[in-house]
Amino acid sequence: LEIFTSFVSSVLQTPAALQRTVGGNANFSCSHKVSEVFYLYWYRQRQHGEPLICIGYLYSTNINIESSFQHRFTLRGDSTKHSYLEIHDLSREDRGEYFCAIRQHNDINSLSADTKPPTLKLCTFSFNKLNPVTQ
After folding, report:
1. In this predicted model, what pLDDT tens digit does every residue of 11-66 receive, in sequence order?
2. How far is CA 23 from CA 1, 87, 90, 120, 123, in A?
3. SS (H, E, C) 84-129
4. Distance (Å, rounded) from C-alpha 99 to C-alpha 41?
């Protein structure tokens, strides 16, 4: 599992790089210093050009995870400061780009995703090779 992020001024998503295998866990962090943030969202995009899928969101400390993600995905945190996304028991279906976005006002048109989404790749290892094979 490889995750890449870029750093921007209003939304910071980490780690910059992470590598995991099928069956492992992945942890993402999102923080910001924007005042009056009402919602913090987590999204996944499986491949470039495919639709964004909402994993869940935080409204202050209230957490809502979409039903299709509830079995292995955990959200923690506070939308006014930071949030954590944890994925347990990684499978190949978890491949894609993950990112957070904040909504500063109650107006739905003010959604802000100022960070490049991290890419998540799952790796399997062959016993006769030393290097992982990205799938």
Report:
1. 888 876 677 899 999 999 999 988 888 899 999 988 878 888 999 999 999 999 99
2. 11, 10, 5, 14, 10
3. EEEECCCCHHHCEEEEEEEECCCCHHHEECCCCCCEECCEECCCCC
4. 8
- Tell the residue number behind the tokens 């987590």, with chain if given: 42
| Amino acid at residue number 82 | H
For the chain, how many structural domains are there in total? 1
CATH number assigned to the domain comprising residue 22: 2.60.40.10
Cis preceding linkage at 15, omega within 30 = yes
> What is the Cα–Cα distance from 108 to 27, expressed in whole angstroms?
28
Burial class (CB in 10 A: 0-12, 13-18, 19+), 100: buried
